[in-house]
Amino acid sequence: xxxxxxxxxxxxxxxxxxxxxxxxxxxxxxxxxxxxxxxxxxxxxxxxxxxxxxxxxxxxxxxxxxxxxxxxxxxxxxxxxxxxxxxxxxxxxxxxxxxxxxxxxxxxxxxxxxxxxxxxxxxxxxxxxxxxxxxxxxxxxxxxxxxxxxxxxxxxxxxxxxxxxxxxxxxxxxxxxxxxxxxxxxxxxxxxxxxxxxxxxxxxxxxxxxxxxxxxxxxxxxxxxxxxxxxxxxxxxxxxxxxxxxxxxxxxxxxxxxxxxxxxxxx
Length: 267
Prior knowledge:
disordered N terminus, 12 helices
């Protein structure tokens, strides 16, 4: 995507002069990037991912309508919770990556969501997948990627990407896909997951069940998309604590529907 020199200048000026803050309902967090820059960056990263079918083989949506409809409905239930700050500002486009060997999910800045089939198969129920989806949506909604870029002084990288530097875009795409968030960002995303699921009929702390499964398996093969800190035991406790504090009452797991959808995934 090409942009004019005026837009580059505007982007540069806005980064230098604006102190954009993003809120999670409890606190404000410094971010020198604008919401518009999150959208622009996310769109370019998503285009790069979509064009790289070797590394990111996307499951065709036209041939797998039921599978996509399942995830779309889950995503929309989260977005309609009333707790997603940028519900209307970000596109929240969702794609499935057909890779059964990878336990991963991620969301780019600006709300482009990717879920691996390996993660879908690993999870036992719909509410667990919704818990993970809420966690990833939380990272984008809280603008964690650009908050970390703010801390790491990545202004030159952003400007290069917005100006059309393909090599820099490829580097940034790999960075975002494999990004390791800070302890505070992981905790914020966990809490966002509970907050999003609380008004629904799902178990709002389903993310805790996911960590319980990891612990039961001795922590082997822990997915890349979740940091090892805070420790899983602490995260389980925090999920449940936040659910109790919010008074969430949902209890639905939808195991049968989850298993039915998994049977439709191509091998």
